[in-house]
Amino acid sequence: MPLTISDFLSRVDVERIEKTLHYEFEAASYIKRFQGRKTVVFNLKDTPFPVVANMFDERRKVLLACSTSSEREVYQALTSNPLPPKEAFEWRDFEEYYERRSLSALQLGAIRYYEKDAGRYLTSSIVVAASGEVYNASVHRMLALDSRRMAVRIVPRHLYKLLAEARRQGRELPVTVLLGAHPLVLLASSASPPFGSFELGLLPYLLGRRVEAARSPLHGNPVPIGTSVVVEARITLEDAPEGPFTDLLCTYDDQRPQPVLEIDEVWVYTEDTPYLHAILPGGLEHAIMMGLPKEAGIWSSVSRVVPEVVKVRLTPASGSWLHAVVSIKKAHDGDGKNAIVAAFAGHPSLKLVVVVDNDIDADRMDLVEWAIATRFQPDRGLVVLSGARGSTLDPSARDGLTSKIGIDATAPIDRRDRFERARIPGED
User: Fold this and answer.
1) Which residues form the signal peptide (predicted)?
2) How confident is the model over 15-26, as pLDDT tens digits?
């Protein structure tokens, strides 16, 4: 069956806003008001389709979409080897499901979120590109420059590599942009498998089934059927100023020259209501979409060096990006230190990690702090790394270099009873 936003909305609580919201700050205000509470649907000024936000603003909604109650199953799916397109998809005819429409970049749900943002942005754009039989899907913010052009923020990862090769040859890079995709399509596109693996090949693991897909009409890129809007475009040889823009940590990213994307065709799904998707920068959905695949990477890495990883949490106050708590079952003293090193390897942007025993809930920062207060000694449990590569999102880093700190707040194996937290039967 097609993978549609309508199907997802049928499973969650939805707040439908009656009034048409303005794209200058008003829409952002409503998204923030309802995040963590309800998925919100609203009409946006000058946009022909309804806009949805806060689809994955809570972890339970991710589990609901995957039809599982286990975060571990989601982690395993996100760290699996993506299936190639011939195994991941059931192929359909694109034009049976889509019709071509005349729409400008400013009609695709572009919103200005914060006061110092450079302009109106698309924040859930999935860019699908190819080089021969190598496909890539990744999520990129796009600043609307005019009716046909957008500046695309592209960091030095896989799409950057494909674009650099195209530009080296003096040619534009054909791309297909997916807008209003099911949130699991966005989550899969946020994962980081090795170059040459197609991120959308993770969808069968997340869904437990193959996905209906079609080749886009101009460039032949795979498109999951049910994606609301499909844009055929080119990333040109031109650059334009992009930014400032509010990023994951709710700080303003710098303005810098970024590649210009030019729209060629816009196609709209005809079998159901097409929705556009707005992600509030620095909001809960932004944190889960970016952070959950990185939690999966930490879980996978730490699982190789300790008997069992109970829970991994990238903390909300760090943008679900820079700080983590990892709960483990120890078999030996020293497992805590090994877990620290493995966590940094599993998510290189990580700046601070606290490792705790399995009796500490990694979601309870009061218990995490209690573990640090009672089970941690700086001269024995502190790991400090200097001059390491960190996150470009961290404004305190210099030229991408940072220091990293690990805290082993686990109790010694032979004295665990001395560190037991008192409980009231029936209450704790």
Assistant:
1) none
2) 999 999 999 999
CATH 3.40.1670.10 in the chain, residue ranges: 304-419
The answer, yes or no, to whether residue 393 has pLDDT greater than 90, is no
Give pLDDT, residue 182.
98
Cα 292–296–301 angle (5° rounding)?
145
pTM of this structure: 0.95
Distance between CA atoms of residues 142 and 334, nearest Å: 46
Residues with a catalytic annotation lie at 247
User: 384 with 404: CB under 8 angstroms?
Assistant: yes
Contacts for 415 with CB less than 8 Å, ≥ 6 apart: none
What percentage of the chain carries pLDDT values higher than 70?
Answer: 100
Statement: residue 416 has pLDDT above 90: no
Contact 141, 122 (CB under 8 A): yes
Question: 110 to each of 125, 137, 149, 298, how far by Cα in Å?
Answer: 10, 20, 12, 33
Residue with tokens 């795979």: 222
Q: Where in the chain is the domain with CATH 2.30.110.10?
A: 5-280
Q: Is 72 exposed, middle or buried (0-12, 13-18, 19+ CB in 10 A)?
A: middle
Q: How far is CA 57 from CA 174, 183, 337, in A?
A: 32, 11, 32
Distance set, CA 103 to CA 136, 296, 341, 390 (Å): 25, 38, 50, 40
- Three-state helix/strand/coil letters over 228-294: CEEEEEEEEEEEEEECCEECCCCCEECCEEEEEEEEEEEEEECCCCCCEECCCCCCHHHHHHHHHHH
- Domain 5-280, CATH: 2.30.110.10
Give the pLDDT of residue 197. Answer: 97
Run of H or E residues at 206: helix 203-207
Q: Is the pLDDT of residue 399 over 90?
A: no
Residue 256 is predicted with a pLDDT of 97
Query: Do 276 and 108 touch, CB atoms closer than 8 A?
Result: yes
Phi, psi values for residue 233, rounded to 5°:
-155, 180
- The CATH homologous superfamily of the domain defined by 304-419: UbiD C-terminal domain-like (3.40.1670.10)
- Above 90 in pLDDT, residue 189? yes
* CA–CA dist 271, 96 (Å, integer): 9
Q: Is the pLDDT of residue 232 over 90?
A: yes
User: For residue 56, is pLDDT > 90?
Assistant: yes
> What is the model's pLDDT at position 409?
98
Contact 312, 299 (CB under 8 A): yes
| Per-chain mean pLDDT for the chain | 97
